[in-house]
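Notes from hallway chat w/ T.B., transcribed later so I don't forget. T.B. wanted the structure written out for a chain they're using in a teaching module, and asked if we could keep both sequence and structure tokens in one place. Agreed to drop them here.
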Amino acid sequence: MITERIVIIGANSAGVSAASAARKMDLKAEITLLSEEEYWPYSRCGLPYVLSDEIPRFRELTLFSSSYYRMMKQDLRIDTIAKSIDLKNRNVQLEKREGERESIEYNALILCTCASPFIPWIMGIYERGVFTLRSIGDGRNIPEWIKKALFLQISLTHNTKYHSLKNQ
């Protein structure tokens, strides 16, 4: 019997869910999750809440600990970029951030590569002081003064919603 080799490019929520579903379908499959980020898979939805201090640290957004991936027999590789996919020979060329390269074979390939922020063409959009928020890395690069303004905005939104519901 041939062992299934499943490679999942994108260790975000969708990638982790795909890996869990694959494990339920095949207890012996070799499952590899690839993430170009340096962080363990996390909930992107919580990023604004870390910036506004409603969630204390970015690491609180982590989906699962390393013991989960070991228990599920999933090979999670962070800081790893899928440089190319050879569909004919069924392999993925990988590169670690340090430059180390590797090729891994697969029987099944799942792409869960997320999106990138849409940045509209607005005069001055590429000036200093304009930020996007899609990753923990983005969040760490946002200056403290913007985080305080975001906290104020989220607090006002919560208070407005609370008082609106209370007065109905």
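Follow-up for T.B.: The first helix runs from residue 13 to 25. Might be a good example for the class.
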